[in-house]
Specification:
five-stranded parallel β-sheet; 434 Repressor (Amino-terminal Domain); Rossmann fold; about 10% strand; alpha/beta
């Protein structure tokens, strides 16, 4: 098994390539091949979910295995859908109890109030769930009660290469706001680079610095344009804080543009011509897109030249913030 990890300020592109003599070893591969016809759909879905969550957090299989305290081989089997069959017993028991494996695995039994709330929300669509989330933020999240009360603080979200820094600087200059890159704020808190934080202290420590940087930025800058690291959406608590205190814009682009723009900045590691690297990028984008889509405004930065894209961004932000002035 070979891995090439492509990291830069919150965007991690991961290449996991298995060859004929992969890290599972011949016995592991043989078992996987022999059991492929007997894979239970639940185990397959579980493996896909684990792999999707790992991609969303920008972690390699080795990093996740180390963080979870399990062997890399065991984690690989889990992602392949040939994990411990005792999970099926858990599923059967949960179904018999009209419950879920997640509920059974929770450290504490859910309260009656939580069960009643969950029942109300269980079959609602995304639009209604968003309404509920926005309604309860002032009660449980400490956010502002509505868009009109939210200060003119703009957060640009999306993967690296979407144009957050370039368009963010242009927008900040136009509005007369400070421009901040949250990655730089995180590095100031930690006293070292993003890559050093992750290599020395791990992903969890990075997420803690990220949360502190968001809290500090919200406290210090009522007016600002902020470029947000692409992986922040992987931490729901921090993302909720951002949604509650900022006007959010998702800058999205075609995967090829993400690759080409990062390379144009002098970072050749994404290897745009490599099929596996592109597939990993597409996988990360597919996982994060539903979270990015929670932003109030969306703008495709691949659709038009830079100047036209900026004018479209400027218009939508000024309209949202009800800012009048020069056209």
């Amino acid at each position: 098994m070979s891995r090439r990890i492509l990291r830069s300020h919150g965007l991690t592109l991961i290449r996991d390539m298995q060859d004929d003599a992969g890290g599972l070893g011949s016995a592991g591969l043989g078992a996987a091949a022999g059991e492929s016809a007997e894979k239970h759909p639940f185990l397959v879905r579980l493996g896909e979910r684990v792999r999707s969550l790992r991609n969303g957090r920008g972690m390699t299989r080795r990093e996740l295995a180390a963080a979870a305290g399990v062997s890399e081989r065991h984690l690989a089997n889990l992602e392949l859908g040939v994990g411990n069959a005792s999970v099926l017993i858990l599923l059967q028991v949960a179904q018999a109890l009209k419950s879920t494996p997640a509920e059974m695995l929770a450290e504490e039994a859910p309260s009656p109030e939580w069960l009643l709330i969950r029942e109300l929300l269980e079959n609602q669509d995304e639009a209604r769930l968003r309404q509920v989330r926005e309604a309860i933020v002032p009660i449980v999240g400490g956010g502002h009660p509505g868009a009109q009360a939210r200060p003119p603080r703009i957060a640009l979200i999306g993967l690296r290469g979407a144009g957050k820094s370039t368009l963010g600087q242009m927008l900040a200059e136009d509005l007369g706001f400070p421009f901040l890159e949250l990655s730089r704020e995180i590095e100031q808190f930690a006293g070292c680079s993003i890559s050093e934080i992750q290599s020395l202290y791990g992903q969890n420590a990075y997420r803690r610095y990220e949360r502190r940087a968001v809290e500090e930025t919200i406290q210090l800058y009522p007016e600002a344009v902020i470029a947000i690291p692409g992986g922040l959406v992987a931490e729901p608590a921090t993302f909720n804080l951002l949604l509650a205190h900022c006007t959010t814009v998702w800058l999205k682009a075609h995967p090829e543009d993400h690759m080409n723009r990062v390379a144009a900045q002098g970072d050749l590691r994404p290897m745009a011509g490599n099929k596996e690297a592109m597939e990993d990028l597409k996988g990360i984008l597919a996982h994060r897109s539903p979270f990015y889509a929670k932003a109030e405004m969306h703008l495709d930065t691949s659709a038009r030249p830079l100047d036209e894209t900026f004018l479209a961004l400027r218009a939508m932000v000024r309209r949202s913030l009800q800012i009048t002035g020069k056209p």
